[in-house]
Fold this protein.
Amino acid sequence: MKLICAIIKPHVLDDVRDELAKAGVQGLTVTEVKGFGRQKGHTEIYRGAEYTVDFVPKVKLEAVVADALVEAASDAIIKTARTGSIGDGKVFVSDVGQTIRIRTGEVGDEAL
Amino acid sequence: MTLDNSDGRDSGKNSIANCLQEARKTLATEIRQARGGVQATQVYSTKIDHLLGRIRSKSTASPDSPVALVAIGGYGRSRLCLYSDIDLLILFGGPIASNEEQLVKDLLHPLWDLGLDVGQQVRQIDELSHPETDNPSFLVAVADARFVTGDAKVFNQFIQHVRGPEAIWRQATIEALRVLVEERYRHFNSTIYQLEPDVKEAPGALRDVAAIRALASLAKASDSPIVPTPLGRLDDALSEAEDFLLRIRSILHLDNGRNLNTLSHDHQETVAERFGSPGSETGGQVETLMSAYFHHARIIARILTTNLNEISPVSGPGRRRRIADNIECNNQLIHFIDNVRASLQPHTWLEVFQAAIDEGCAVAQETLAFMERHGDRYPTEAFLPGTKARDQLLHFLKPKPGLYERLSEMHENRLLSRIFPEFRKIYCRVIRDFYHKYTVDEHTLLTIRNLCELTDPNTAARNRFGGVLAELEQPELIVLALLFHDVGKWTNKNHAEESVRMARGPLRRLKISIDSIQTVEFLVRHHLQMSQTAFRRDTGDLEVTRQFARLVGTEDRLKMLCLLTVADIQAVSPETLTPWKEELLWKLYVDTYNHLTLGYGDELIATSQPSVSELRKLRPPEISEHQVTEFLEGLPQRYLRLVDTQTVYRHIKLSRSLEPTQVRLSLVQDNDVWELSVVTKDRPRIFSNICGVLSYFGMDILRGQAMSNHQEVVLDLFRFIDADRFLAMNRSGRSDLTTLLEGVVSGMVDLGTMLKGREAAAQANHNKLRVRTVVHFDHHYSDRYTVLEVVSTNQWGLLHRISRVISEHGCDIELVLISTEGNRAIDVFHLTSSGKKLGPDKEENLSTDLKQALTSPSSPP
C-alpha cells in the first residue's frame, strides 16, 4: 500500500477527485494548506501599494491506495491538476505499513 | 464495599443492578412512545434516589462526621435522562478522615460498577461558608440542591448558606450563571436557530431552562432587587417547552445508547416519527418537529434574556432619559413613553430600534411584546408611509454595531416581516445540507452581523475588507441585498432568481433609485458567483479575471459583492470562512479591481455587441443609428457599464456636429452631488483644464473619468460636491461655472493666472493629515497604454497639478479614472507618448516630477 500525497491548486480539486474516482480510488482526505515554493511568493499591487504574498493557498490531497493502483492514481492527479503554469504542485508517494478500518477491523487492502 | 458477586455483577430480582435495569426499562418504554418528558424523568430520578439509599445502607464504613447525600444539577432537579450524569454532592458535617473516605468509596464504586457516570463533589460543610467563585459550574449546580438521604441537619445547614437571607451566595451564583450562559451562547454563535441543535446546551435549550428556574428560585428566597421577578404565567409555557425538550433528549439517549444530545438531521427523522409529527413525507414531519423546537426555544431564550437584563447592574437608581418625542431610555432599555399613542403611530416604531442602536442598548421586552400585539392591525404601508420613514429605514440599515441585534428583535416580534412580508417565507426555514448550521432566516441575519463586524474588524486579515466597506457611499445596499439574498429558498428551485423576483417588491416600495435597485438585484442574483470563481476557477488565468470583471462591471459592485460574499460564507457556520478562503477571495478581489481600473482601456466597445444593438433600437427619433455607432466606437466597455441608457443618448446629442473648439456640457444635481459631462474635440490639456476650473470654484471631485472615441471626441465625466456651497448660494453659480469651463477648455481664457490667486488656500491645507504619496507605473494590465496610478492626499488642485505635469512631459492622457475616499485620492491615468507606451526614462522623469509636485504644496498650479 502507498500513501499518495498531492499538493494541487484549489480550483482543480473537483476534477482531480472525479478522475481519481474513475481510477478506482474511493477514499480521499482533503486539507486546505498554504504553499511556499520555488517562486518564493510574489508581490501584488493594490491601489498603488505593494504587498507581498508569501504563502499561496493550495489543497493537500491524501489517499492510501493498493500498490496496483499507485500509477493510475498518480497519473489521474497529474493529468487533471496540470495547468502548465508555475504552482501546479507536486505528488509524493510513500510506503504505508498497515491500514485498519475502524468500524469492522479489516486490515490491509481490505480496509482500503 | 463491593457488590454481591465476585464478578462485580448483582444477582437476584431485587439486586441493585436489577433495580437499575428495571428503572431504565420502564423509562425506555415511555421514551419509545415519546413520553420521556418531565414526569418520566422525575420517576426515574426517584428510582435513582432509592438506589443511592440502598447503596448507602449497604456501606460498612463508620464515619465520625454526619453525612448528607445531595443531588445537584440535573439530578437535583429530578430531570435525569437515561444516560445523564448523576451529579452528587457528598457533604460531611465535620472533618473528612479515613472513615469518611471509606464511605465515599463505598458510595462511588458500586455506582461505577453499575456503569453510571457520576459527577461527584465531596465537601465538608465548613468549606462552604463562602461560595467557590472560581468554580462557577459548582455554584450553579448546587442552586438545584435536593436532599436524597443521610443527615438532614447537615443538608439544612448547607441550604442556609446557599439560599439563606445573606446575599453572598446568591450574588455569586447569579454572577456564575451569567458567565456560564455567556460562554455557552458564544460557543453556539449566540443563536437559537441551529439546524442540528444540542437540546441540552444550545441557546434556548435545557440549560437555559435550568438557568431560568435557578434565577427564579433565588428570587423566591430573597427580597433583593437584584434578582428577577418570578415567572408567573410564563411558567406554563416554560414547563411545556422543558417537557418537549426532555422528550427529545430522552429519545436521543435511547437511540444513541449514551449521553449524546445533538438533534442531528438523522435523529430529527426518528424523533419526528416517534412524536407522530404530521406530514405525509419525512421532510414535512421534520419541518413540523423543528418548527415546534424553535417555537419553544424562542420562548425559553426570551424569558432568560429578560431575566438576565433585569439583573444587569445599572448606574444609579432607575436612570431614565428622554431620547426622542415618545421614546425614553430607562435602565439601559428603550421604551415608548406613551404606549397608547405609539399604538396609533406604527411609522414611529422603527425609531425605537434606531434609538437602541444609537444608545448601544436593547429594546425593552414589553415594548417588543407591545409591537407584536398591535402589529397585525396595520398593513405594510403603514410602517413606511412617506419619504421620511423610508429614509429612516435606509439610514437604519447602514452597517454598524448593534444592527444585527435590533434586526433580530424586529424579527422575533414580527415587525421585520410586517415591513417586508416577503421575509415571512423563510421564517424558521430549514435547509438540510452538510454545510449550513442555521435556519435560513437566522443565516440571513448573521450575514448582516458579519458585515457589521467589518466596521470594527478584530483581525488584520479582516481589516482589508473593513477598509473596502469604509469606501462605499451606500453600504446599506449590501444590507438590503443580504436581507433578500436567500428569501428564494422557500422553494427548492434556483433560489437566486427567486430571491431577485421576491426582492423587487420591497425595493420598489422603498422608492430607492433605479440604479440602487439594479445594484441590489445584481448582488442577490450573483451572490454565489464570487465564491464559485475564487474557489473553483483558475484565478491565475487572466481570462477568468476578465470574465469576472465583465460580470461585476464597476468597482463599487465588485466591492459590494466581495463584502457580501465574505459575510455570507461566514454565516454558514463559524468554521466555514477560513483564512485560506479569505486569501482566495482577496486575491480575486484585487485582480478584478486592478483589471477594472488599470486594464479597462484595452476593452473597447464593439459596435456589433448586443448592448449597442439595443441602444440603436431604442434610440429617440432625433438620434440616428449612425450617430449611436459613431459615438460609441472607440469608447471603453466601462462606459456602457457605468452610464444608463438615457445618459448615453444625452451624451450623443452633445457630441453631434461639434466644431473644433466647441465645448458642450451638462451639469445635473443629484442630491448633494453634481454630475458634470463635458464633450469636446480632443486637444492638449483638456482634462487638466477642466480639473483646474472645478478647483477654482472649490469643487471637491469624488469620481471622474475621461475617455475619447475614434472620432476624437473627448467625453469627461465628473461627480463632485460643492464643498463651499458656491452653486447653492449664488444664483448665477451654474452659469459662471459653465461659462468659465467653456472659455478655458476652448482656449479663450487663461486658467493659470486665475488659479494663482488660490495658492494661499492650498498652503493652509498643507498641514492636514497626509497620505503617503505613491506613483506607480503598471505594464501588465494594458497592451496599449502605460497605466499610471497615483495615490495622494486629497488636496486642492491635485488633479490639475498631476495632469499638468503629465502634459509637460509630452504624454497624452487617453483615459482617466478618479476616485476620492475620505482624505485619499486614487487616480489612474492611461498614457501614451506619440501613440505608444512610455519608455523607462520618461517614466522615471515623470515619476520624479510628479512626486515633487504632490509633496510640495507651494508648487504653482
